[in-house]
Each structure stands twice: as structure tokens, then as C-alpha cells.
């Protein structure tokens, strides 16, 4: 727990490894035993045919909620499935208590299809600022971590996003059209220009990891759900990247952003993509 006069940085110095352990155990106990073994009754749809939830999502979130709350008494947990059941619980992100932001299975559609492209996302935030993040892709056995001001790491190796090759089209992962408004579609269409190669995104968490590793150049996303973005935004920042909304402002996990927004390998790329999104509005 954060004791009297203890900072969140001091808490993380002592307990970041405990969070990692909880994330790994949630995947080992609740997610991986169900991968490629899901029965029809273990899969449900939420808002539409592409918005899936499984027993793995629900049980992994319950595991993490208990483990993280125990680790940091007085904190709150904002998880995707709990918010679906009780939308008012999302307000915890805007409260004064430390908040764990959890996506138990990011890339549920890929998980349901038996693909490897899914991960578990956990971020710790306070006052709208993300202080630490964990991105765990269990099938790929990859764990990416970041602590504000201390860098980003993949399996213990420091990440450097670098800058895109100027002689190659920008590789930009974009929101699926099913999750965009007409206004947002117009913004995204502006990316279909010389020098840019847009494509539909997969798991948001893994798209952020690809940017932090320098394997992809940018994203252009149209939704605000903090569980999809909080962990990855810090990971990219600590790897040297940047993020901007269509209005040219940094993305806020507390909401109220002018969407779409971009996250990119460096500031110049973020400004270029944000400018195109703004021009297409």
C-alpha cells in the first residue's frame, strides 16, 4: 500500500514486480486455459458483432481486481467488463484515489479466433496521469513495462521507438470503420495520401508495443476507453514517442479529447498525422 508520506514512485519501486506477478498469474490461471478451448456458451456479444466478451475476460478481470486492490489498499480498479456492467464506475479514472486501469484481454476477437494477437493491459494512474504500465502477451511470452521517467522495457531490454525511415511510407494502424462516426471516417480518409500506408488495427495494446519497438510508425484511433490506451500511451512515451489529438493536444485518459488521435514514434510524426486528421475533419 501507499503509506503516509510515501509517493507512488516509492510504491512502484517496491511493488512493480508484484503487479507483474499478478498479471502473469491472471493469464496463466484464467486466460491461457481457455485459449483455443472456448465453448460457445463462454462467448457473448456486447455492443455489436465485433464487440466480444468471454469467460476469460470476466474471470481474469476479477482476479486482477482482487489482487491489485489488495496490493494497494485505497485504490480503485476500472476494468472494461466492470464498466460494461456499471458504466458509472468509469468515473474512478477522474477521482482522487490511485486507479488501476485494466483490460483483461485486449484483442478479444483475436483471442476468440485462436490467434496470438491479444494481451493483458494494466496501468496505474493518479490524477489523470499514468505512472506505470504492464503489457503482457502470454502466447508470445512478451512483457512490456514502463514507469514514468524511468523508460520502457520489453522483457528487460530498453525500448527506443526511434524515427520512421524518411524513404518509406508511414505505417499507420487505424480504427476499424465499424467503430467510427461519419466525421471520424472523413478524418481517417485523409490518411489515404502519398507517403502514408494506413491499415486496420489489431489489439490496441500490441499496436502501441509495435510503435515502442519501432516496428510500426503511428496509430489513428477514434475511441477513448482508457483501458485500451493508458498502458500503451505510457509505453510509447517512455520509448521516446508522442501522442496528439486532432486538435493538436496530448490525449487525456480522463476524456474530452478531439478524436481521432494519434500516437507515434516521435513528435514530428505525431504532428504530421494529427495535421492530416485535422485537415480531413
UniProtKB/TrEMBL annotation:
The keyword Metal-binding belongs to this UniProt entry's keyword annotation: yes
InterPro entries referenced in this protein's UniProt entry, alphabetically: Inositol_monoP_metal-BS (IPR020583), Inositol_monophosphatase-like (IPR000760), Inositol_monophosphatase_CS (IPR020550)
The enzyme's E.C. designation: 3.1.3.25
Catalysed reactions, semicolon-separated: a myo-inositol phosphate + H2O = myo-inositol + phosphate
Keywords in alphabetical order: Hydrolase, Magnesium, Metal-binding
Name by which UniProt lists this protein: inositol-phosphate phosphatase
Taxonomic lineage of the native organism: Bacteria, Bacillati, Actinomycetota, Actinomycetes, Kitasatosporales
Amino acid at each position: 500500500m501507499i503509506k503516509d508520506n510515501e509517493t507512488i514512485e516509492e510504491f512502484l519501486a517496491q511493488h512493480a514486480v508484484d503487479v507483474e506477478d499478478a498479471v502473469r498469474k491472471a493469464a496463466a490461471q484464467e486466460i491461457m486455459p481457455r485459449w483455443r478451448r472456448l465453448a460457445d456458451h463462454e462467448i457473448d456479444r456486447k455492443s455489436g458483432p465485433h464487440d466480444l466478451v468471454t469467460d476469460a475476460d470476466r474471470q481474469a478481470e476479477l482476479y486482477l481486481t482482487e489482487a491489485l486492490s489488495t496490493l494497494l489498499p485505497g485504490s480503485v480498479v476500472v476494468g472494461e467488463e466492470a464498466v460494461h456492467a456499471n458504466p458509472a464506475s468509469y468515473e474512478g479514472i477522474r477521482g482522487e484515489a490511485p486507479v488501476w486501469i485494466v483490460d483483461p484481454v485486449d484483442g478479444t476477437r483475436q483471442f476468440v479466433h485462436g490467434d496470438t494477437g491479444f494481451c493483458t493491459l494494466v496501468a496505474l494512474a493518479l490524477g489523470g496521469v499514468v505512472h506505470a504500465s504492464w503489457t503482457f502477451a502470454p502466447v508470445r511470452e512478451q512483457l512490456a513495462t514502463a514507469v514514468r521517467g524511468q523508460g520502457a522495457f520489453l522483457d528487460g531490454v530498453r525500448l527506443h521507438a526511434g524515427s520512421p525511415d524518411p524513404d518509406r511510407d508511414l505505417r499507420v494502424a487505424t480504427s476499424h470503420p465499424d467503430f467510427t462516426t461519419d466525421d471520424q471516417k472523413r478524418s481517417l480518409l485523409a490518411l489515404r495520401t502519398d507517403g502514408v500506408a494506413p491499415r486496420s488495427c489489431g489489439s490496441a495494446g500490441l499496436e502501441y508495443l509495435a510503435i515502442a519497438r519501432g516496428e510500426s510508425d503511428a496509430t489513428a484511433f477514434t475511441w477513448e476507453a482508457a483501458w485500451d490506451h493508458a498502458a500503451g500511451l505510457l509505453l510509447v512515451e517512455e520509448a521516446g514517442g508522442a501522442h496528439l489529438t486532432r486538435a493538436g493536444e496530448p490525449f487525456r485518459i480522463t476524456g474530452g479529447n478531439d478524436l481521432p488521435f494519434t500516437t507515434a514514434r516521435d513528435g514530428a510524426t505525431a504532428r504530421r498525422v494529427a495535421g492530416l486528421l485535422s485537415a480531413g475533419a
